[in-house]
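Example (one chain per record):
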Amino acid sequence: MRHFGHIAPEVRQRLFHQEPCEFGTDSPARVLSAALGATLYSPATRPRLADDIVKQAGLGVVSMVLCLEDSIDDADVVAGEENLVRQFADLAGRDGADLPLLFVRVRTPEQIPDLVQRLGASVRLLSGFVMPKFTEERGIPFLEALSSAETASGHRLFAMPVLESPELLYRESRVESLEGIARAVDKYRDRVLALRLGVTDFCSSYGLRRAPDMTAYDVHVVASVISDVVNLLGRADGTGFTVTGPVWEYFRVPERMFKPMLRTSPFLEGQAVELREKLIEHAMDGLLREISLDQANGLLGKTCIHPSHVLPVHALSVVSHEEFGDAADILRPERGGGGVLRSAYTNKMNEVKPHRAWAERTMLRAEVFGVAREDVSFVDLLAAGIPG
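Predicted structure:
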């Protein structure tokens, strides 16, 4: 699979200076963690789940979570498990079908070895498990269960803990909770693909819900948690993990209080005025702003609950030609001693040592999402990826 693999090769050639790389379930964890992109959640109870997965893969989705936790009723868990096993068997029988990375969000550690055993040979389609309300105390049993299931099945499985517990949110317990989470995920570093943020649960603790014309970063009690998570768990010194962006809850807005957040000029340049109007109508201007703020705050990828959110996440994850040029200049072998140089775009300073970690991170993103041509903007990428 590859990002933007659902669009025609000749269109990709026109859009990309460097096309996104191909990757698969057996790719290195370093690549997969960066390539998750917009991770689409779906209730595990959907009766045509296998068809849904194949359809979404054909529309550019590269990672999905099949949820047995908050998205389904407590009374439906057993039926959801049975449905998952049936749907995986269905997928396993579809030779040649392109599938995304598939994860299952469970409720208890005991579900992990049980599901792996019940999946049988179709476990080869499973990339791992999402672990809810993760703390050191609650998380270790999940990680131990995953390790045991991996050994028993002989199939590599990854963990994606969700950081969403009140202990992490509350000021008096935050540091202790973060330090405990850090100990747990460091012990199982090879198995932890990414850390996910449960911002809806954070808001719930205070009876809050952000409006469609606001981002998670406008809710300061939430923004402070994101900051602290990245501070301890997202460092670029080799100790950090990929931390993914919070879910965007909206997909259509009947009425808005504030002006749209999308400037008109980029859409005029690309002659995509109708696209801008469509994005605003479906609350995508708020989503686009939040994706930009995610990236500015050290997050990569995003939890998504609607297919329409996938393309904006991927379009804004593509590395611009300018970013790529700056990163390449900074990482040239002859720059190993440091120093300062002017950007090839003559609009900024590139300081080799302080900007090296940014450049390395940018090159990894360029590998999995590609590099846009000099005259290609995110508007062009959005327009090219919309079906029909």
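Caption: The radius of gyration is 21 Å.
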